[in-house]
Amino acid sequence: MCGARAAYLFNQWRQKFPANFGKVARIKNTVMVKISISASHDGGNIQFLSQSPLTSSLNDVTCTISLSIRPDVYTESERCSHMQYFSFRSFVSGLDDGVTSITVRYEIVNASEASFPYAWPGTTVCYSTGSLDASDDALWKRNLTTKYVDGKLAWRHTHQDNGSTFFSYYPPYTWERHLKLISDCTSQVVNTARPLAEYNPTVESLGQTAEGREVECLSLGKGRLVGWIVHRQHPGENMAEFYAEGLLRRLFGLDGELDRATKRTLEKFRLHVVPCMCPDGVVRGHIRTNGVGANLNREWGTVEVEYEAPTLERSPEVYWALKKMDETGCDFFLDVHGDESIPHVFFNGPVETPKWDERMKALQGYFVNCYRRHNSDVQKEFGYEPPEVLNNPKVLNKASKQVSNRFNCLGLTLEMPYKDCATNPDPERGWSPNRAKGLGRSLIEALDGVAGYLRMEGEFWREFGEEDAFVLPRLPEGL
After folding, report:
1. Cα pseudo-dihedral 163, 167, 170, 174, rounded to 10
2. Residue among 107, 352, 415, 445 flagged as catalytic
3. How far is CA 52 from its chain centroid?
4. What are 152-202's pLDDT values in tens digits?
5. What CA–CA distance (Å, rounded) separates 51 from 63?
6. 175-468: which CATH architecture?
7. Is the pLDDT of residue 10 over 60?
8. Has residue 139 got a pLDDT over 60?
9. SS3 letters across 419-457
10. Fewest CB within 10 angstroms: 106, 124, 167, 323, which?
């Protein structure tokens, strides 16, 4: 058959069966579409398992990608390998005029084996087509197709452009970004011409981690009260360092001159801020432990004869922080975390410790209500269930409990949600990095408000209004 005759017959076939011809063309183009999964970025955590064959429909192709979360290093104190946090990059190439999108069903197949599987319902995976730089914080959104079904966490995402999309349990706060924050604050410290100089700002390393990273502490203020705020003992609770960034940017005047509330607070307090307690876990992409398997928020005291804590070998981060705290004293302590299950901002106080009394109860109630007046995301109705046992020395391995008891001061754990915040819902973005930063900024007013009562003697709480009373929280319905 001559070439002209073959071309004629081909065109006749093409006109008679146009759908079949289009399918052939799409299948040919589909071969060029590729999707690659990686978790090599700072703090990444995922293991690629498999990808189903691509199937085509009109100008879109579809597939399923199966993944698993990589566990933390085994932790001796809890006898398990924690896992919950994930963060990975999905890179698409080969989309063109013939195939304009690819819809992927991502599924984490070992979700049922996570440390808190009961927290998956209501979770929405975070995603962004931007970078991990601070300038792209606002680009993070929530995938509202996320479901926890048959032990798998699954969601669908349509990639309409070539390039990368990050998916994460919560938007990452990288170690590189942490170092930039420290550098920015240090530049304010060395600039003695700035108004900040009168508050004697310092940046120091409390000590090094097991893997040789510094645990930095930033201090400033000229008041008689001493406040400590530590963040990210659990490295996968990234919202805690977003909170620290919001607080530090305001304290160090990184966004402009110091405002009046900040100046008042620095007149009353000497503040010590540790923005990241667990650097090794951050870099490794862990959810709860450092590089040698220590859950730092179970390392603040020895509560079991056979398990000494803290130690330089297993938990140097806590060892150095407590050593410095013993030197400075403490009148107020805040340990900033994220909670996988409860969709609210809430506080957990020293209710189980030997120091819990009417004074502590009043201080916690008043502080939380000062915070509520300046940030509507703060609430007091929901939180952890009341403990069954009061005056329980077994809880003194936790930071806020140990510090409250050690210094007879108000010590609190602040929890932020991984999920959308039910107090002020925003399904598209959930509890976002910007809201965490805003909550950190608002701490200034709460500190300013409670300062006068932290070491006041007598029954000072009798002058508080009913709205300032301590409320014993309860779990939200369904949890």
Report:
1. -50
2. 415
3. 32
4. 999 999 999 999 999 999 999 999 999 999 999 999 998 866 789 999 999
5. 7
6. 3-Layer(aba) Sandwich (3.40)
7. no
8. yes
9. CCCCCCCCCCCCCCHHHHHHHHHHHHHHHHHHHHHCCCC
10. 323
Residue 237, Cβ density class (10 Å: 0-12 exposed, 13-18 middle, ≥19 buried): buried
Reference 189, options 161, 162, 219, 209; nearest CA is: 219
| 266 touches 223 (CB < 8 A) | yes
Three-state secondary structure call for residue 286: coil
Domain boundaries, the chain: 32-168, 175-468
Q: Is 79 left (phi over 0), alpha (psi -120 to 50) or beta?
A: left
Is-contact 284 374, C-beta < 8 A? no
How far out from the chain centre does Cα 220 lie? Answer: 25
CA distance 108 to 45: 12
In whole angstroms, give the CA distance from residue 134 to residue 245.
10
Cβ atoms of 294 and 314 closer than 8 Å: yes
* 120 contacts: CB under 8 Å, gap ≥ 6: 111, 114, 148, 153
Q: Does 257 participate in catalysis according to the annotation?
A: no
Tokens 């001061």 correspond to 409
Closest CA to 56 of 19, 91, 15, 89: 19
Q: Which two tokens stand for residue 339?
A: 């909670």
The token duo for 395 is: 């809880």
Q: What is the mean pLDDT of residues 302-312?
A: 95
CA separation, residue 380 to residues 254, 344, 349, 436, 439 (Å): 31, 9, 12, 17, 15
Mean pLDDT for the chain overall? 93
pTM of the model: 0.93
d(CA 311, CA 290): 13
Query: Is residue 21 scored above 80 in pLDDT?
Result: no
More confident residue, 32 or 442: 442
Architecture of domain 32-168: Sandwich (2.60)
What H or E segment, with its residue span, contains residue 30? helix 18-30
